[in-house]
Amino acid sequence: MDNIKAVLFDLDGTLIDSEWFYYKAYRSTLRLYGRELKSEDWLKEFAGKTDGQTFGLLQDKYGVRDEKEVFFDKVREFIKIQHEEEAVPLMPGATDLIHYLRDQRVVMAVVTSSKREVANYHLDKNGVRHFFSALISRTEVQNPKPHPEPYQMCMEKLNMAPQHCLALEDSPTGSASARSAGLTTFGINTHESIRKSLDADRVFDNLHEVREFLENW
């Protein structure tokens, strides 16, 4: 741990427990088109992707023929309804890990494929935005994950070299981005089949395990 000066968190599915939340909105939308989306397919194929990447997959695999904005207007309507009924909490172990890293004087940042306003909303809602020295979102980059640009941009903003940074990711898209940027990468996912698909130096079931490992690393 002595060599690690910064930990860069992915947001959806890594820092906040949002994958099921968004899965429900997409499942409801696809049902309007007479299509069914399974949770396993969502986690394997859609997690960590931008809206553009997601829509390309929806066209190719699920036969969506509406305009992109027409489809996403429907998704956003379901999301709006869900926000009125439920919150999107932090992942188990996130608060403990954040406080541990703060106490160790490790710099923290968020690198996400979500848009900036969405990321800020979730970080503010959970009261953790002030812990992070940088936020790199889909809004800032030309090439989103799995391209290395998001992580490269974050390291540049933090003035950190790859060998001093640790990335935490839950999806193949995100782990590929971090690894291609030269970061040590930990994969975190409760689903064993997805953990096996992550391009990561180590994999964990949850953030509790990450914190325990870092204490002895």
Question: Could you explain how this protein is built, in words?
Answer:
By secondary structure, this protein is α/β, with parallel strands linked by helices. Helices cover 48% and strands 12% of the residues. The chain contains ten helices and six strands, in the order E-H-H-H-H-H-E-H-E-H-E-H-E-H-E-H. The chain has a six-stranded parallel sheet with strand order 3-2-1-4-5-6, with helices on both faces. Strand 5, helix 9 and strand 6 form a beta-alpha-beta unit. Helix 1 packs across helix 4. The termini are close together.
Counting helices, strands and paired strands, the structural category is alpha/beta
**Element-by-element helix/strand order:** EHHHHHEHEHEHEHEH
Strand order of the largest sheet: 3-2-1-4-5-6
Q: What overall form do the CA principal axes indicate?
A: globular
Largest sheet composition:
6 strands, parallel
Q: Give the oligomeric state of the chains in this entry, treating copies of one chain as homo and distinct chains as hetero.
A: single chain
The residue-averaged pLDDT reads 95
β content, as a range?
Answer: 5-15%
Helix content percent band: 40-55%
Number of β-strand runs: 6
Q: Indicate the low-confidence ranges by residue numbers.
A: none
Number of helices: 10
Measured distance between first and last alpha carbons: 5 Å
What is the alpha-carbon Rg in Å?
Answer: 17 Å
Which characteristics define this entry?
alpha/beta, 217 residues
